[in-house]
Sequence to fold (332 residues):
Amino acid sequence: MHDTGLASIQHGNASTSSHPAQAQGRNAFVLPPHSQRGWMPECLRRLGSTVGSLLLGGAAVLGAMFAFRQGALPLIQSAFGLDADVVSAVRRVGLLATALLAYWAFVRLYERRVAAELSLRLLPIMLGGLSGALLVAVPIALLFALGAYALVGTRELAWSLSGVAAVIAVAATLEELIYRCLLFRIVERSWGTWVALMVQALIFAAVHLENVEGAGIAVAVTMLLAVTVVGLLWASVFVLTRSLWAAAANHAAWNFTILLSGVPLSGIEDWRAMAPLQTALNGPDWLTGGMFGPESSVLVITCASLATVFLLRRARATGHIRPPAGSSDGAT
Fold:
């Protein structure tokens, strides 16, 4: 995944001369070739490689999804006369399948490696899902206990929740494929884990700005902070496990737990009417999360931040933190 170290110390050949300059030269630090040319060309090379790989990988995945939705799906619908519910299910499964296939092809043909992050490992998936649910359920339960969330009623579990769960699972997996497997991993390859963590988290947060369109600046800033933190959380799960499915399970379980609690999910109100709990917000936005939901609550942000630190410390201890390409350091 990353190149070997570039820095080297070379000693000059022994010399019979006693001149100070010659003696000093015997122990001089010899810069590697790219350092002698300057750091700027190397940075530009890395940047070009990163952008090129991202464009190619993004075109492969997003292009395959577009082709299925605009080309294959209408043909399937026309050929088999499917009703709306079946078409919706076929669309979800088809989009996920084509995205995964395109990513696998990109990795195999362009990167020339095995896509190990796509392998199914049961234990990381189970732990990812369980931890994702608990990480958000605990602060939400505390918000209920504090009276910031008020339970105003309950509903019977509806069969429609299974369809929502499928939508959440597919959406979470696609986001993890794009932001963690593609964006994070490609940036990490050239710039190292720490830079890649911040880049993908900031982009992930910026994309979610449309969920609070029309809200005040305070809501938008809080949302950006909150989604940056969860972007770091899910990338940390990926760093530690190197598994798409573990990160997707954590992400999906997190989202579905929020939905079940009857509060807004990332600024989306549409599914609250299906939740088994009818909930009202009784506290200030900094505590409840306001219109964006519990993800913008200070309690959830704190829990997610602590979990991220734990995961990254664990990743560092187990050698999963990767240095920039060309660095002589190992996992730091």
User: Anything to note?
Assistant: The mean pLDDT is 88.
